[in-house]
């Protein structure tokens, strides 16, 4: 019995030293790249901690940056599946057209989405603040939002091409590209906020400068390392009808993915509603969920960069084999990736736990709280008491996130694997359904449990995240039941229903045994 259990567990990890090295070879550059990318956001938030309501202001405004990022992720979900399999089949012209679609769709969306942000920025901020926000916070948020929209246009180019670099196994060059951007962001933030005293606007200008530099560095490696599938901005409209059909019939999955990420981002509305400014600790401390949750999100994104490796690893180690119809190899790698990703996530969780216990001693993270209270004539000891409460809540939220992270990594990998073959829409539909249920649970916690109890923000967050037990159960059942290992051209979809999937028999002439041999 023990041997059987050990064998089953062993199937969920790389089976040789060579395979471990291969996974790490592609994953480590992506993790470091994602770490640097996340550090850009952390730098902005950390640099404004000394500004009264600085973190809160960026939290409200960057909620919309996150929503645009959700759209880019949705496009990437569909694009990476297509790119992975087409690369495996070496159909480079089709890959180019898919990349053009990814960029073009992103640009069109940002023109509409960003344009509205410039016209009605106050409405954008109130969406997350739910009207419970000071005038100072609102003014700072609006100023930051109007500027940060510029960086969204840059992301519509850099995000797709850097994603393709990762999906083609060139992640180390994305890493090289991200280093100058991070250095520029730190330098510009220091100059504009501490030197020129520009406030939150300085953080926005620093981000714009870093993104602008990223256009040149990302483009250089894109053209240099994968010239066979490189595109130019003036060739964006060179897309065939079949390429659009291939992309759009899967775009349902993109919309569902966007919906999932939108629901996740919108959770901040519930937390802000349950704990508005002045509801944590003493009222005159002006502490609410926005600042604490915003900072917690920024910190965890930095530590949990491993999540960004999932789609690229699946495209490299699973998608390519599906494209060549090496189904057994794809399934074997799929199982190994689940354990590999979860183990790496556990490693980063341990680091986050250590960091969380150091948070109460990092008073710089709550310097804005201290400045706000003392500037209104209160004693320093009173301000220090407020800092203690702020940092203690932050510590516990980070610990909760760290403990759940390996679980999240396991089912995120499962969902990505389901999408890598013929069940992209099914994967997104299940994810959207579960996320909707999760959001409704948060609404119940916010408006029923919290008002009738003395729950702290951290305890509310713990109760909400208990839903993860149900989530992983549902995702694993779908993963085990769904026959996801399918070639991209071996299924026909009814565009009116994601559940009516008609697939070819694997024993037919399209799927001869020669493709199922391991490489």
From TrEMBL:
Per the UniProt entry, the signal peptide is none
Q: Which residues form a coiled coil?
A: none
Keyword Membrane recorded: yes
Recorded GO cellular component terms are:
plasma membrane
**Keyword entries, A-Z:** Membrane, Transmembrane, Transmembrane helix, Transport
Which InterPro entries does this chain map to?
MATE_fam, MATE_MdtK
* Transmembrane regions listed in the UniProt entry: 23-43, 63-87, 99-120, 144-166, 173-196, 202-223, 251-270, 290-319, 340-362, 396-417, 429-450, 456-480
User: Which is an annotated GO molecular function term of this record?
Assistant: xenobiotic transmembrane transporter activity
Pfam families to which the protein is assigned, alphabetical:
MatE (PF01554)
Q: Explain the purpose of this protein.
A: Multidrug efflux pump.
State the similarity comment: Belongs to the multi antimicrobial extrusion (MATE) (TC 2.A.66.1) family.
Q: What is this protein called?
A: Probable multidrug resistance protein NorM
Which source organism does the UniProt entry give?
Answer: Mycoplasmopsis pulmonis (strain UAB CTIP) (Mycoplasma pulmonis)
Q: What is the lineage of its organism?
A: Bacteria, Bacillati, Mycoplasmatota, Mycoplasmoidales, Metamycoplasmataceae
């Amino acid at each position: 019995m023990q041997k059987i259990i050990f064998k089953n567990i062993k199937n969920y990890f790389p089976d040789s030293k060579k395979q471990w090295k291969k996974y790490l070879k592609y994953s480590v550059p992506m993790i470091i790249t994602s770490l640097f990318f996340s550090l850009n956001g952390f730098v902005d938030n950390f640099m404004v901690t000394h500004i009264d309501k600085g973190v809160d202001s960026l939290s409200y405004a960057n909620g919309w940056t996150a929503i645009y990022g959700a759209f880019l992720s949705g496009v990437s979900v569909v694009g990476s599946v297509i790119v992975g399999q087409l690369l495996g089949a070496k159909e480079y012209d089709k890959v180019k057209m898919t990349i053009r679609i990814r960029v073009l769709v992103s640009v069109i969306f940002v023109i509409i989405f960003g344009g509205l942000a410039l016209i009605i920025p106050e409405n954008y901020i109130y969406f997350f603040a739910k009207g419970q926000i000071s005038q100072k916070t609102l003014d700072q948020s609006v100023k930051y939002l109007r500027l940060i929209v510029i960086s969204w246009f840059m992301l519509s180019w850099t995000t797709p091409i850097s994603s393709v670099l990762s999906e083609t196994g060139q992640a180390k060059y994305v890493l090289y590209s991200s280093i100058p951007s991070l250095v520029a962001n730190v330098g510009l933030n220091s100059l504009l906020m501490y030197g020129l005293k520009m406030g939150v606007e300085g953080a926005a200008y620093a981000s714009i400068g870093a993104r602008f530099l990223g256009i040149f560095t990302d483009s250089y490696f894109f053209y240099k390392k994968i010239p066979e599938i490189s595109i130019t901005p003036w060739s964006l409209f060179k897309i065939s009808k079949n390429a659009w059909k291939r992309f759009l019939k899967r775009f349902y999955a993109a919309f569902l993915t966007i919906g999932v990420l939108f629901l996740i981002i919108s959770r901040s509305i519930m937390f802000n509603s349950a704990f508005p400014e002045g509801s944590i600790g003493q009222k005159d401390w002006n502490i609410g969920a926005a600042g604490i949750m915003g900072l917690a999100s920024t910190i965890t994104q930095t530590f949990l960069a491993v999540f960004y490796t999932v789609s690229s690893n699946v495209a490299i180690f699973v998608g390519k084999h599906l494209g060549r119809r090496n189904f057994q190899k794809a399934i074997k790698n799929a199982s190994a990736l689940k354990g590999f990703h979860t183990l790496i996530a556990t490693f980063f969780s341990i680091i986050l736990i250590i960091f969380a216990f150091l948070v109460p001693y990092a008073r710089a993270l709550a310097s804005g709280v201290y400045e706000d209270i003392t500037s209104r004539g209160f004693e320093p000891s009173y301000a220090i008491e407020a800092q203690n409460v702020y940092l203690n809540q932050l510590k516990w939220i980070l610990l909760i996130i760290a403990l759940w992270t390996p679980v999240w990594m396991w089912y995120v990998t499962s969902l990505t694997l389901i999408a890598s073959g013929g069940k992209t829409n099914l994967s997104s539909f299940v994810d959207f359904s579960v996320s909707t249920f999760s959001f409704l649970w948060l609404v119940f916690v916010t408006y029923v449990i919290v008002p009738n109890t003395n729950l702290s923000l951290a305890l509310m967050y713990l109760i909400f995240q208990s839903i993860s037990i149900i989530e992983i159960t549902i995702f694993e059942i779908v993963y085990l039941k769904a026959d996801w290992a399918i070639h991209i051209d071996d299924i026909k979809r009814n565009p009116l229903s994601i559940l009516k999937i008609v697939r070819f028999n694997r024993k037919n002439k399209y799927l001869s045994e020669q493709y199922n041999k391991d490489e």
